[in-house]
Amino acid sequence: MKVLFISNDPNIFDAASAVRMRMRTYAAALRELHILSHANRDAHEEKEENLFLHPVHTSKLFRTRALSARAHALVLENAIDIVSAQDPFEHGLAALRAIRGTPAKLHVQVHTDFLSPWFVNCGVRMSLLNRYRRRLADRVLPAAAGIRVVSQRIKDSLIARYHLRIPKPSVIPIAVSGTLPSPVPLPAHSFTFTLIAVGRLEPEKRVEDIFIALKHIAKQYSMVGLFVVGEGRSGARLKQTAHSLGLADRIIFLGDRSDAWGLMRSAQAFIQASAYEGYGRTLVEAALARVPIITTDVGIVGDVFKSYEDVLSSPVGDPMALARNITKCIEDAMMRYKLPMHAETVARAHLASQGNFAERIRDDLMRTFQSV
Questions:
Q1: What is the CATH number of domain 193-352?
Q2: Residues 263-282 pLDDT 10s
């Protein structure tokens, strides 16, 4: 079986990256795996045994058109059986166009909970773009011969919206290593209770809700501080928000850190306020790191992690609920001990139940290949 992935991760062209290593394991389970992605100008065509990498160099404005044209050519040149899109949006549209007039079948990966009401309510610019993306998904998914999602939450939402117009989605989560890194000390600080937030600084992460929650408890708990790990388009705005709330001395921005998981192990609690998550890899990592988890009800919360058994969860867009959960975490020492112990057990059982990811991906693609 010959497969073409249309990817949105240019890190695939870095031979030492985690995504390249993951693609090697997928390629080993297939006859041929071709990966097409936008990339920097210095990226070039590469081949590693049966793994073939194809860069596209173009502006964002013309990216979908360039990806679809190159993908169509690759399908014809290499007799590709399946074209798998990294998302049901721009990459899904490129894949749909690429298979036209060919016997190749369309497979779509859904990593984002795009049917969450918050997907189209995260700022004006994001709302317009995401409404367009939702319309693209409405066009792409019914044309797919196979669909892979990363959580039961996404599967349920797709079935509720599309019913029998789409093939039954396969739930194959994100691969997370069960091997913990060594603890990494947090930078020097004067806090006696440390929260850590890890992730891209984008509108949908709603990091400002954490700031508002921190402001709400600031007078009562003057020893609480927050470390923010990550970078993104909202970075400058969030730093300004921290200043305007009078929290500049309570919030430390660490930027993008490759040792983020190790830093988690040195904090008293992990916190996130995302509007939506497809899966929630950092939740699993925080559970394995044995830190109490304060989170919104997104991703695998409710499916894998149960509120008040494994994590402290709250509704999206409710900073006061986050503040209450921070307070519980500070005041209840027994809960701080029991919650992460139980969460780690659940996380390890969850990972153990997933089996071999490369084989599951291969089997899912094979079902797509054999579908009528």
A1: 3.40.50.2000
A2: 999 999 999 999 999 999 99
